[in-house]
Amino acid sequence: xxxxxxxxxxxxxxxxxxxxxxxxxxxxxxxxxxxxxxxxxxxxxxxxxxxxxxxxxxxxxxxxxxxxxxxxxxxxxxxxxxxxxxxxxxxxxxxxxxxxxxxxxxxxxxxxxxxxxxxxxxxxxxxxxxxxxxxxxxxxxxxxxxxxxxxxxxxxxxxxxxxxxxxxxxxxxxxxxxxxxxxxxxxxxxxxxxxxxxxxxxxxx
Length: 205
Prior knowledge:
This protein is mainly β.
């Protein structure tokens, strides 16, 4: 069970919110006094006394061995600027380095504790012109899916419960295609069940 803060539980229970959940990644870089701190966002944030740099990165699906046992989870960080690649090349692919993933909420950045925190270890690394992929391993963390239901960028999670509690629409229109445009047509975008701020492909919530 997730141990959310009071603010996190309130936010999770709301049908609509002005804020978003943010994924933070912290990579310990050998011989550097400060780790690399990134946030999947369109602007930098300050949390827990540190600046987290807005950066394009994403988590992939957990891979399994031939016995179905969770093995690793890929963390892909944009390599367009080759900023991170320099650290990778100087430190043997950062193999064995600790990578900490955290989830915070944009409305409660004054909270010093994250809503979720998991620590992984870099098992191996690959690079190409677009992405640096760290394959992260942990006996416990890679067996935990967070968030727990699939959330898509351009598709409403409440479509199958149209006019239900989560949807909240009570007008006369009888059908909805699950898009944000349809929600806006109904003046109901505050209850939209998708997440326009996340990357294409969605994530699990």
